[in-house]
Structure formats: structure tokens, C-alpha cells
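Journal club prep — side note

Before the paper discussion, L.F. wants everyone to see what a predicted structure for a comparable chain looks like in C-alpha cell form. Sequence:
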Amino acid sequence: MQDAANIRPLTALRFFAAMWVVLFHYWPKLDTAFTPALVGKGYLGVELFFVLSGFILCHVYLTAFGEGRFRYGDFLWNRLARVYPLHLATLAGMIALGVGAGLAGIAIDSEILRWDALPANLLLVQAWGFAPAAAFNHPSWSISAEWFAYLSFPAFAVIAWRMRARPWVLAGLTLAAMAVLYPAFEALAGRSLTQATIAWGALRIVPCFALGCAMHSLWRSGAVRSVRSAALGALFSGAGVIIAAAAGAPDVVTVIGFGGLILGLAGLAQHGSSFATQPGFVYLGEISYSTYMICVPWKIIFVNAMAKLLNLADEKLPWPLWIVFLLSVIPLSAASYHLVEKPARSRMKLMADGWRSRRAIAVGV
């Protein structure tokens, strides 16, 4: 069994998921009338994150859960340390941007500073139907959905653990459930589940997270038997994802393709392949959460600044400037990772270690 840190291709994959979302948000600011279909499907990068989350959390915690060593409180604290500090920082940043713009007499979207949505954002329940609008840093809805999955992880783990000897059955049942859920939701709600954010965002993560758990079960069972089969699986699944997204296939087809891609990449690591394990790829994956969380605030700052400096009435950027805009999110993500995300996470983990030490001393006394 591979250590979590050794599934490096999956860490690298996170960067591509984040940049797909970034392209989706940034492309409308490019001075062109053409939008590639693949870019238009960039919102599915969130689904890729969700499937990855289910796979990795099962990889890290499922055995401990099954053997009775899982500590729910420690698990939740570790997950909160992973997502909450940067969420809080970007939330504060958007408030500062909105208030500053108002004081400067600059018009902003009235939904950004919806103060009645602040409690839900602070409690990470804005994607549970408790927020009246997509206020502040809109991408944070998916962090709220992740928090829902973290809280309900024991339910996923019970199923995955009990069916660990029948991984193909688990995968089949998961795919069957997805084949029913996606069209049923669209029929009832009038829109795709993959476009749910503030309303029904917590539900959006459920099939993806379950798919990640099912793919982990297959991987753990040794379903990927060789480097060759892993490479072929990753290649065909990756190509299928691109073709399905570009051809406008139902989103569920692309999401299912994510499962095969993740299984193939994890299989490559399992059998010793060095594909996508280079430090540069892994580092970009490590800063991908920052990439995702700062992309919209940076869009607001950069586009508004350039529109005023260059007198761009329609806020459309010429190609050279747009490329600078797109690429600049990477060093900003690195700065966010090293200045906010990583140190805050370490600090929260040190706090937990201190609490455990004090409890141990108290019990010993």
C-alpha cells in the first residue's frame, strides 16, 4: 500500500483541476467572441476535486476507521485546518475589497457584500441552503460542500469498509446511483446538479465523493495490475474526459471519466512509475487550493485595475495582457500558500497537539 504522500500524480492532478476552473472564470474577460467548449465546461474542475477528495480521504483514513482507530474529532480538526484559514482570509479580503470600493465610489456587484450571508459563510454552511446569495468569495461554496462531506465521512467509510472485499460491486452500485441521480435532479430542479452552488451544493459533492471512495476500493484491491494497464487506463480515461467535455456530453459522463483517470494515475504510482511525480508538478498541486480560492478576488482586482488604466469600457483584455492575467495567478497562489495556507494549517495542528498533550497529562495525573 502506498503512503499518501506517494500518490504524487494525484497531487499534480489538482493543479490541472484548479486551472480548468480558473480558465472558466477568466475566459469571459478575454477580448474574443470564441469560447472553446472545453473551457465552457471548466466548472467540472470542481467535480474533479470532489472525486479526488473521496479517494484521498479513504486512502488516509479508511483503514483506521475499519480497525477502530479513527478519531472523528481529530479528523474534523485536521480537515478544518486544511480549508478554513484560507477561506477566512479570502472572505476577509473580499469584505475589504467591497468596503474599499464603496468608499472610493466604485460600483460593485451588490451580491458581494450580502451581510445576511455572512453567518453561513463563517460557519461553512453556505452551500447547504442557508445562504441567501452567493456572496463574498463565490468559490468558497465548494469548501462548504467539502465540509459537508467531511462531517458525513463516517457514512461513506462504513459502506466502503463493509464492501472492501467486493470493490467491483461497490463501483457498479456507485455508477448506477449516479446514472439515476443526475438526470433525476435535472428533471426536478430544471438544471444540472453540476451547476448547483449555493443551492444544493452540498448534494453536488455526494456522488463525486462516493465515486472517489469506490475508485479507492478498486485501487486498494489491486484492480490495476500493472504499469501498462494503469497507463492505458489513465490515457483512455483522460482522453474520454476531454472528448466528453468538448463534445457537450452529459456532465455525468465526464465525472465518471474522472474516476477512471484517478484510478489509472494512482495505479501508476502504485507500480512505481515516475509519471507526474516531478517536484514542479507536485508543488503546483500543493498550491492548487490557493489557486482556486484566490482566482475570483484576483480577477476583480486585475480586471478593474486594467479597465481603468487602459480605459477598457467592456473590461475585455487583449491577448498578451490576458495571458499575463492568467499566469499571474500562479505566483500569487504560491504567496498565498506560504504566507497564509501552510503556516495557518501548521499552527492549527500544533494547537491540537497541545490539547492532546494536556489531556494525556490530566489523565496521567
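L.F.'s comment for the group: The chain has one domain: 4-340. Keep this in mind when we get to the figures.
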